[in-house]
């Protein structure tokens, strides 16, 4: 987690290291990264059903007068009107969710006094979210967006360790920002 460019924090009189260059080097300050909490949520899969309907044209029929005869237009052609019917489809969406949360703090310690000068909170989260769907009924009743959703199938949940590693990558930025905040205290 500490592999990132600390050289950006260096100045003429201040130099940062993430490893001890030699055992004989004396440091005026050092930082401690305390990772206090790693939580991984349980795997959650929730289903949500919704019924969609759409009225479509399904052929045509003649317009009849009161006597049951076909009505004609001014040119003598039979008048036809589109026949409509309603189609239905149930869309079953599955929402998958799992998250890892990492929390801690960075302490700036004055080496000579072994005194904590300041603590800065750090944290990161890695989230897995996936939505898939299946349809029961006539898919033509669905919107284009819903039809796209049908292309997604359920996927396996990531392992806890994979989410933690992803969170650790995000935590690097939080550590870097925390060091930047503490850097202002060092003259």
Describe the structure.
By secondary structure, this protein is an alpha+beta fold. The chain has one domain (7-55, 88-183). The protein is built from 2 helices and 4 strands. Strands 1, 2, 3 and 4 form a 4-stranded antiparallel β-sheet that branches.
Low-confidence stretches: none
Overall average pLDDT: 89
Number of strands: 4
Biggest sheet statistics = 4 strands, antiparallel
Radius of gyration equals 33 Å
Order of helices and strands: EEEEHH
Explain the layout of strands and helices.
Blueprint: E1 29-40, E2 44-62, E3 80-110, E4 115-137, H1 144-149, H2 160-183
Antiparallel strand pairs: 1-3, 2-3, 3-4
Provide a compact summary of the structure.
Helices cover 16% and strands 45% of the residues. It is α+β, with helices and mostly antiparallel strands. It has one domain.
């Amino acid at each position: 987690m500490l592999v990132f460019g600390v050289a950006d924090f260096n100045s003429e009189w201040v130099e940062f290291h993430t490893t001890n260059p030699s055992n004989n080097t004396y440091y005026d300050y050092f930082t401690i990264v305390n990772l206090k909490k790693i939580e991984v949520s349980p795997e959650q899969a929730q289903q949500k059903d919704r019924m969609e309907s759409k009225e479509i044209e399904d052929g045509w029929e003649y317009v009849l007068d009161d006597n049951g005869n076909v009505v004609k237009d001014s040119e003598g052609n039979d008048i036809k009107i589109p026949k409509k019917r309603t189609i239905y489809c149930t869309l079953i969406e599955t929402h998958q969710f799992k998250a890892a949360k990492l929390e801690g703090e960075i302490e700036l310690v004055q080496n000579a006094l072994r005194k904590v000068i300041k603590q800065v909170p750090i944290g990161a989260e890695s989230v897995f979210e996936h939505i898939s769907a299946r349809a029961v009924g006539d898919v033509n009743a669905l919107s284009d967006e819903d039809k796209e959703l049908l292309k997604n199938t359920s996927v396996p949940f990531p392992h806890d360790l994979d989410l933690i590693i992803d969170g650790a990558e995000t935590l690097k930025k939080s550590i870097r920002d925390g060091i930047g905040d503490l850097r202002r205290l060092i003259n």
